[in-house]
Amino acid sequence: MRTPANAKLHAARVARGWFSQEAAAKGISKAGREALRNPAYEVSVRTFRRWESANPGWPRPDQATALRAAFGRGPEELGFQLAEGSPVDIPSDQAVIIPPVKRRTALAGVAAIGLPWLTTSAPDRTGASDLRIGDDEVAVFQATAADLDAIDQQFGGDRLWRSAKMQLSYLHYVIDHGVYTEEIGQELHAIAGQLTTSLGWFCYDADQQTEARVYFSEALNAAMLTGDHPLATRTLSNMSRQCIDLRKPREAVRYARTAEQYAAKWGAPPRVHALLHIRAAQGYASAGDEMNTSLSVKRAWKSFDQGATAWDPEWTGFLNEAELTCLEGMARADLGQHKRAVRLLDRSASLQAVEHSRNRGMCLARLARAALSDRDYDRTAHAALESLRLIEGGQSSTRTRRQLAVVRDSLGGHKTSAPLRETFDLLTHHIA
Q1: DSSP H stretches of helix in 178-269
Q2: Does 368 score more than 50 pLDDT?
């Protein structure tokens, strides 16, 4: 059998007991999934074949991490040649903490290493022709977008929206300068649309409301131009939720109802309709319309009770029983139905899973507000401190912090109670 040009990688995989390239690709994929904590991560056989060819290009950072996890050695020891100017990967077992820096300083430093989205001029023909995009690259973009959404669910958008913005900028660079088939191009544009509306949501959670509206508008425009009805549905749902915080309940209802029209165009599954009904309910509640709030809540639960389906979009994955209960509880609180809100929010907090801890933190903060209005001071203190504990554990949602700030300010007249006095002091110390 002819020895592959990259003899080092060939020898390493044989030593691992992977006697075929297919086995090696599977083994590296498994190691990558564990190292990158990405259950969808894959290295294709075609990619591995290219690695065993003559002069393989330097692997991407995620691929370098997977190789290191599989073989215990970095790319340079596996026959890869580092071209001048190529980025060097950081081993996955080395934690890197980036201190706060001024934006101008950070951009200058990044521009110095030649990241494409900060390049002031278009690349030359040689560079552009090398940017070939195939299934592997599309899979990485898809996985990255999914990872960002998952991180948001657990930790919130404050520390996420900047990274998502850079990822979106690079994706647009690839769309503008890459070489790919028409089918790949359609996939890239679809990912860009989903990432744009996700970025809008991250900005919303970080209380960057102007930025959020810009990205939501961009995503909605993209959906209209490409006829992407699911993207339009998702974006309008996001815009509806933002309008509640912006105290524009009529717009919230209008966006939710328009989203339902787009959902009908693509035969959206029940979970999508459940989300849109509860968005409308929150808009009606914010406007003080009790009758339409209750009707929309009933419709939401009726759709939800039809169950999940195999074609549910990923962006409805957060809408479990705990979250729908929480959203109803928030609506009841906005109507002034505090006892009912306390029951719903308390149940939601007990049901929510750790991977949705951002939502649990928000639910606890709203529970503290509702319990305070209901004069249930022990529950107020407990819920506020539980929400604060999640923030101290790494959660970075400005929305949650603002809810806790409202609780703190409302506690000013209740400091004769020892638990509330302690809660007030802790919130004052930790919440700006």
Answers
A1: 182-205, 209-226, 229-245, 249-265
A2: yes
pLDDT at 213 over 80: yes
DSSP state, 181?
A: -
Burial of 3 (0-12, 13-18, 19+ CB in 10 A): exposed
In the predicted structure, residue 116 carries a pLDDT above the cut 90: no
Q: Is residue 340 pLDDT above 90, yes or no?
A: yes
Q: What secondary structure letter does DSSP report for 132?
A: B
User: pLDDT tens-digit profile of 53-76?
Assistant: 877 777 776 787 888 889 888 777
> Is 219:231 a contact under the CB 8 Å cutoff?
yes
Q: What is the DSSP-derived secondary structure letter of residue 116? A: G
Residue 225 has pLDDT above 50, yes or no: yes
The rounded distance, in Å, linking the Cα atoms of 379 and 382 is 5
In terms of Cβ atoms closer than 10 Å to its own Cβ (0-12, 13-18, 19+), residue 277 is buried
- Rounded Cα distance between 146 and 144, Å, is 5
Average the pLDDT over each of 225-229, 277-281, 289-293 and give the range with the smallest value.
225-229
Q: What is the pLDDT of residue 395?
A: 67
Q: 220 near 232, Cβ under 8 Å?
A: yes
Q: Which of 216, 187, 186, 185 is nearest to 200 (CA)?
A: 216
The model's pTM is 0.66
Residue with tokens 């065993």: 52
Closest CA to 157 of 400, 366, 350, 385: 400
What pLDDT digit, counting tens, does each position of 230-266 carry? 999 999 999 999 999 999 999 999 999 999 999 999 9
Closest CA to 393 of 418, 360, 371: 360
Q: Bin 386: left if φ > 0, else alpha if -120 < ψ < 50, else beta.
A: alpha
Q: Interhelix angle for 229-245 vs 182-205, to 10°?
A: 10
- Structure tokens of 61? 């950072």
d(CA 160, CA 147): 11
CA distances from 79 to 24, 51, 74, 302 (A): 16, 9, 9, 59
**Directed axis angle between helix 321-334 and helix 270-286, to 10°?**
20
Which ranges of 37-181 does DSSP label H, i.e. alpha helix?
45-51, 61-71, 103-112, 125-130, 135-155, 161-177
Shortest CA distance to 110 belongs to which of 92, 96, 98?
98
